Amino acid sequence: PSPICSTSVTSAKIQVNGVHLHYQQTGEGSHAVLLLPGMLGSGQTDFGPQLKSMNKQLFTIVAWDPRGYGQSIPPSRDFPPDFFERDAKDAVDLMQALKFKKFSLLGWSDGGITALIAAAKYPTLIHKLVVWGANASVTQEDVRIYNGIRDVSKWSEKVKKPLEEMYGHDYFAKTCKAWVDGICHFAEKSDGNICQQLLPDIKCPTFIIHGEKDPLVPQAHAEYIHKHIKGSR
C-alpha cells in the first residue's frame, strides 16, 4: 500500500446494540487493538497520539466513542448501575461487527474498568490487556475525590477546553455531574464493588500501569488489580 493509505485514519459509525457508535481506525497489522477512552473521553480526545504514532505495520488500531460520548450521540449519556457492563458489551460487539475475531484492549480510567470487565466476560475474544488509571471498587476516599471534580468550572483550562469544544458547555457540565452520581453509587455497597469478583476470571496476559501522581485514582487500586489478576504485571 502507498504511504498515504498506511497512515490515514478512517472515521465511521456502525450500529451496535441499537445505537450508532463512532470509531476511528488505522493501520493494517495482524494484531487488532481497541483503545477505550476515560470518562467523557472519545477516541480523538484521548488517543490522538496513539492513532497517529502506533506501529501501523504491526497493529490495526481502533479507537471508539462509547455511547453518549464523543460522536456517539445520540443517545445522551446516562449512568445506570450496569453502565460499565453495557460499555463492555458495546465495545466487544463493535469489534465483532468490524469482523475482528480476536483483539487486545488498551483502556484508561473508565475505559480501563470497561476493559477489565470485557476481558473477564469474553475471554475467548481478548488477546491481551493493558489498563491504566483503573479501579475495581469505589472507596469513601474516592467519593471525596470525585465530588471535587463535579463542578467543571473548577477544572483546569487545559483539560476542560477540548471537552467543552466537543460537547458544548451544558452537555459537558451536566454529564460530568451525572458521572459523579453514577460512579458514587458503587460506594453505597458494603465493599464498594465495581468488578472485583471478575478479576480472577481474566486469563489473558495483562499489564497494569499507574501514574504515581494520578490525582483521581489512588495507587492502591492498581495494586489490588495486579494482586487479583493471576500472572499480571
UniProtKB/TrEMBL annotation:
Gene3D superfamilies: alpha/beta hydrolase
Pfam families: Abhydrolase_1
GO molecular function: serine hydrolase activity
UniProt cross-references to InterPro entries, sorted A to Z: AB_hydrolase_1 (IPR000073), AB_hydrolase_fold (IPR029058)
Keywords, ordered alphabetically: Hydrolase
UniProt domain AB hydrolase-1: residue ranges: 32-145
Official protein name in the record: BPHL hydrolase
Native source species: Haliaeetus albicilla (White-tailed sea-eagle)
Name of the gene: Bphl
